[in-house]
Amino acid sequence: MEPAGTGTEGMEPAETGTEGVEPAGTGTEGMGTEAMEPAGLEPAGLGTTGTEGIESAGMGTAGIEPAEIGTAGMNPAGLEQAGLEPAGMGTAGIEPEGMEPAGLEAPEMEPAREAEEAPGSPALPAEAPLGGPPAAAPSGEEALPAAPGRERPRERERGRCGASPQGSGGRAARGRARRAPGRRSGAESARRPGVTVDSSKAKTSLEALKISLRQLRWKEFPFGRRLPCDIYWHGVSFHDNNIFSGQVNKFPGMMETVRKITLSRAMRTMQDLFPLEYNFYPRSWILPEELPLFVAEVRMMKDRNPSWKPTFIVKPDGGCQGDGIYLIKDPSDIRLTGSIQSRPAVVQEYICKPLLVDKLKFDIRLYVLLKSLEPLEIYIAKDGLSRFCTEPYQEPTLKNLHQVFMHLTNYSLNIHSGNFIHSASVNTGSKRTFSSILCRLSSRGADVKKLWSDIISLVIKTIIALTPELKVYYQSDIPAGKPGPTCFQILGFDILLMKNLKPILLEVNANPSMRIEHEQELSPGVFENVPSPVDEEVKVAVIRDTLRLVDPQKKKRKDTQCQSLEQAPEGSEELPEAALPSLCLKQVFPKYAKQFSYLRLVDRVAALFIRFLGVKGTTKLGPTGFRTFIRNCKLSNSNFSMAAVDILYIDITRRWNSMGIDHKESGNPGMCLQAFVEAFFCLAQKKYKSLPLHDQVASLIELCECRLAALRGKRLVWGCGLAQRHRTLPASATAPGPAQPRGHQVFRLQKSSQLRALMCRDRTGS
Ligand code: ADP
Questions:
Q1: Which atom of ligand 1 is nearest to the CA of 509?
Q2: CA of 304: how far to CAs of 52, 67, 298, 299, 397, in Å?
Q3: Which of 259, 325, 387 is the pocket-test mutation for ligand 1 (most atoms within 8 Å of CB)?
Q4: Separation CA 659–CA 654 (nearest Å)
Q5: How confident is the model at residue 173 (pLDDT cuts 50, 70, 90)?
Q6: Is the pTM of this model over 0.85?
Q7: 3-state SS string for 341-366
Q8: Residue 680 CB neighbour total at 10 angstroms
Q9: Distance 495 CA to ligand 1 centre (A)
């Protein structure tokens, strides 16, 4: 398949942020008029080879009933009535221990008293009803540092606050009024400064961000600010700016963590521990290192079931927008020359029986807010986008394998098809809202609540798989006790629905495109940016409501309890919560923490890893740290000597470092988290031979945690004893001077050097 062109959907290319060239003369045929695939919701058949996990629709989510994000309130108008059979959804729902029974009450939104809104309900009218938004100050002009104890002159925009469909804040009229410090009126100086947002690095999300800020009437700094801002909005990565305070909309290491290979590894670890819970991710192998394994496993599966005719999809690591992706029928078809060798890739089972709408394959882009890592807080947007292929779907055959417009749903690819339809309606065309699809499914009797419940489960489980790595990056970039921002991030989850409505995770995007316009060729070679209503409807709401959820002043207000949350504080120009639409983001974690906490085993392994990392700012464990971990947890014995510990460390670390993983510290020869997890699993298997893997790992974690707690306890007791003894020494002993008895001095010196060593070891996590 050809490399993708540029596009606006999918991941935002990391460096440029440029997107979206749309070819002239997009066709109008082929979409929106045909019925939903009559085959409807049959159980899919992927073969019998280790893919059974994907077959079974049950995802262990029986307890989640996201009633309010079902289809209530969706507008079915204009949807065709045809042939989708009621869902034959998955058979045995997997119900992990601790999962609550079905019928859990509908989750509430945060803040709890906000009314629920149907998916797809329009965002706040583009034009804010009152007054104008704060001004976007030109670079350099704004930053008049306030004298200590004196308020800065307030800048205000006198222009319009409304967002045209184009939503260009840059086009909004701007005006400013300034007063010298100290000449503010009493009423004005009583005003809160409002939430300040640095949008100078927002890149392609700028337009949607500007509309959101106008709707909230927050203060935008499009060229940055010398004083700190409350929020920094980055288009690409955490490191776009040097930030020491406030909040930034990116986590350090997120881009690395969701790369195709890293995600596949993290999911594999979870699949090893919890095979049934993680069967929503297709079986994957990492190339080139696992090519022999891939060949051997496929051969074995084919031997077992000769009728199995699988298809695989090869995806280069770090690729986006369909770049370099191709389908194969046999492992021998992998292109070993050129790209794969120079570029590692993931080869994955291809889902041959996707749910079709209008005979077309489509995928779902869902927006997920990771609001906090510790404690874990996750929100899901009630609406997302559905991106359609532009050629009717057929199951893969040698003849159609290369047909990109039939098999790949990437917007960036399909926009180049003559069949691509830009629609002003969110219900038709090549890009629609997810709610419009749900509405169609619902009108045909599909259980969309169950579908939402499965999607929520998929999202929570995926984030649980990603958090260990993210925490390692986080402590490295923002060490505890050092000044730094807090982070949140909007992620783009790409999900495919199987015919039986089982959601399958395709990938997670760290930088989902937040563009709300696309390019249109007016005449040959002449392009113009035109608004995309479907993008605007979904993305502006996601950004605005993300901002509302991370609003630093809301926290302050809550803390001081001096204002009602529903009202803007007196003198504030911000819109009160009550005047805004209800949140489009729904909290799912910790809301459902009870059902999913048992999955957080690797998180606990990561906590041990971080504890022994020692040097702040690193992401890799040195040999001494590993030895200290073994010693402190008392894991070595006559059968497992310290020499064997060293060999284990060297073996595993060397292998991981030779894989050429794109890691923050690729030059550091130490042990990365994933290598530590592998070593930990080895130790667990050694120690608890007869148990299943999950129990082995859980038992070893408990043992380590207990031994470390006991050690800490001992040290505390020892520390107290020492202090007491120190207090009972004669005054002459505690006051250095020539009169001190020699023996006491020696005692103090010995003990204090021991204590120093201990404290030093404690600091290094030992
Ligand atoms: P990229 O980041 O390049 O967009 P994706 O993993 O999203 O890579 O894959 C691109 C497209 O290929 C997806 O949008 C989807 O249509 C299709 N695809 C990816 N993986 C699978 C799969 N396992 N089964 C079926 N289709 C897939």
A1: 2
A2: 14, 43, 10, 9, 22
A3: 325
A4: 9
A5: very low
A6: no
A7: HHCCEEEEECCCCECEECCEEEEEEE
A8: 25
A9: 9
